[in-house]
Amino acid sequence: GDSVTQMEGPVTLSEEAFLTINCTYTATGYPSLFWYVQYPGEGLQLLLKATKADDKGSNKGFEATYRKETTSFHLEKGSVQVSDSAVYFCALSDPKYQLIWGAGTKLIIKP
Amino acid sequence: EAQVTQNPRYLITVTGKKLTVTCSQNMNHEYMSWYRQDPGLGLRQIYYSMNVEVTDKGDVPEGYKVSRKEKRNFPLILESPSPNQTSLYFCASSFVGAEAFFGQGTRLTVV
After folding, report:
1. 3-state DSSP call for residue B83?
2. Among A1, A19, A84, B71, which residue is least crowded by beta carbons within 10 Å?
3. Phi first, then psi: what are they for B83, rounded to 5°?
4. Per-residue pLDDT tens for A32-62?
5. Which among B43, B48, B103 has CB closest to A101?
């Protein structure tokens, strides 16, 4: 079945560092891909999405490109802030329109 | 304001005492689901509903019940809670195949 694999955390960076959180997937067909963020004590919220190959989703300085050839959707940000500390989830929408989730990656940004 | 509302936010109960966690959305979404989030296990789907009177099991349905009598409401019922159901629970809703909106979460402790 469809699946999503994320890099294990926690990921610890200093403020203004470059961020990459890896996400790869296996899927039949052409799923939509999502990144969600969960700030401490809150529910998940959509960060960005891409619906077809080569699409780039972007929001709040974060970007991710749908790479069909490498089945990847890596999350990147050029300069992280302490306020970006959160748990990040990669997900795909399968042919039955179910969301398949990665395990989540905790990001810790130190001042 | 578009939102998914869960209640209660926090609940401590005793083993075997039936409880209901409510979930309501005001976006006319067809699709609603319940997840539990446990450290190291990510998000696991409990039940989902594609529309009124249509529900189906997710990955971890044992010990839970749901109902979907109205489009906006999707309560989660624990008939006889046990300590292994201590967890953080999230309700989510969406249009089919689109991004999910999450509630703020319910932290349940069963003693």
Report:
1. helix
2. A1
3. -55, -30
4. 999 999 998 888 999 999 999 999 999 999 9
5. B43
Identify the helix (H) or strand (E) that includes residue A18.
none
Instruction: Using CB atoms, pick whichever of A44, A49, A103 lies closest to residue B90.
Output: A44
> Nearest-CA distance from B93 to chain A in Å?
11
Query: Could B105 and A43 be called an inter-chain contact, meaning their C-beta atoms sit closer than 8 Å?
Result: yes
* Contact at CB, A104 and B42, closer than 8 angstroms: yes
pLDDT in tens, chain B (111 residues): 889 999 999 999 999 999 999 999 999 999 999 999 998 788 899 999 999 999 999 999 999 999 999 999 999 999 999 999 999 999 999 988 788 999 999 999 999
CA distance A29 to chain B (A): 14
Facing A102 at nearest CB: one of B4, B42, B92: B42
- Reply yes or no: is the peptide bond before residue A31 cis, omega within 30 of 0: no
> How many residues does the structure list for chain B?
111
Q: How many Cβ atoms from other residues are within 10 Å of residue A25's Cβ?
A: 20
Task: Provide the Cα torsion B50, B56, B58, B62; round to 10°.
Answer: 150
Alpha-carbon torsion angle B3, B21, A42, B48, nearest 10: -70
Closest CA to A17 of A87, A88, A90, A84: A84
Interface test with A, best of B102, B104, B106 (most A CBs within 10 A): B102
A90: β partners:
A35
